[in-house]
Amino acid sequence: MGRLDHKVAVITGSTRGIGKAIAHEFVREGAKVVITSSSSAHVEHALREFPAATVYGCICDVVVMADVERLIAVACEKFGKVDCFINNAGISDPFKSITESDPDEWAKVIDTNIKGTYNGCRAAISYFLREKREGKVINLAGSGTDRTSNTPWISAYGATKAAIARFTYAVAAEYRHRGISVMLLHPGLVRTGMVSADDPTPELARQLSTFTTILDIFAQPPSVAAKLAVKLASNWSDAKTGIYLSALSSSRKKGLLLSYPFRKIFNRIDRRTY
């Protein structure tokens, strides 16, 4: 018996990285999942990793409301319902100061992260209300969510994650008496393409040593966040809303910092990109 038996979830941006790890964990726990990407090639490639009966792939641009609403329709057509909607899709701006930034790139981050999360929440909650279903929405936090987490040189990303946190708590309060749980998940620092230093900007190149050390100390595999996502989607969160779980809590940060010298000495630092 899995913790998510008979559940159906939609996860945006889930053909790689954190989203794909969440999808794998959901399937292991018994759920059926709709995975998405704006790239048909990414969808086709990711589907090969899952049993055909458990996962369906869909192309979706989260900035387009009609695309997001179609995810709900597809999930209902393929699996009969939706129990959980996870707004995972997100991008970051290049590592640059605000005066060096490209206004169009900066705006794209705002649109994808904030508008995409809004579209997902609106589509999912509208479905839950229309079908008189109790459902769960999980939004993704990140650097910038916590008040002590500043994000110089990725100001658009940090601003969106701060906004998503406030948005999540506002929506949670709006529907707290309707049987709908709206929650926030911080996946911590994960080595994905979003934090890759393969083609660094001049600013990142200047800070590469510090950046690499921070990754070595605090980066974790996406499975840590995926297990927390299962917890939020499971019966554990029934009748709860406005919950915030972090894969990089204070105690977790302390443990990673204290263990870093030993992991470095014994070559136990995981530098894989997920």
Note down, in words, how this protein is organized.
The radius of gyration is 18 Å and the shape is globular. It has helices at residues 17-28, 40-47, 65-79, 103-130, 155-174, 202-206, 208-218, 223-233, 250-265; strands at 8-11, 32-37, 55-59, 84-87, 135-140, 180-186, 244-246. It has a single domain (8-193, 221-249), classed as NAD(P)-binding Rossmann-like Domain (Rossmann fold), CATH 3.40.50. α1 (17-28) crosses α8 and α4 packs parallel to α5. The longest helix has 28 residues, at 103-130. It is an alpha/beta fold. A seven-stranded parallel sheet has the order 3-2-1-4-5-6-7, with helices on both faces. The model has no long low-confidence stretch (mean pLDDT 96). 40% of the residues are buried.
Largest sheet: 7 strands, parallel
Q: Which runs of at least 5 residues are low in confidence (pLDDT < 50)?
A: none
Supply the helix-strand structural class. alpha/beta
This entry's quaternary arrangement is single chain
CATH level-3 fold name: Rossmann fold
What distance lies between the first and last C-alpha atoms, to the nearest angstrom?
28 Å
Strand order within the widest sheet? 3-2-1-4-5-6-7
Number of domains: 1
**Total of DSSP H or I helical runs spanning 4+ residues:** 9
CATH class membership: Alpha Beta
> What is the C-alpha radius of gyration, as a whole number of Å?
18 Å
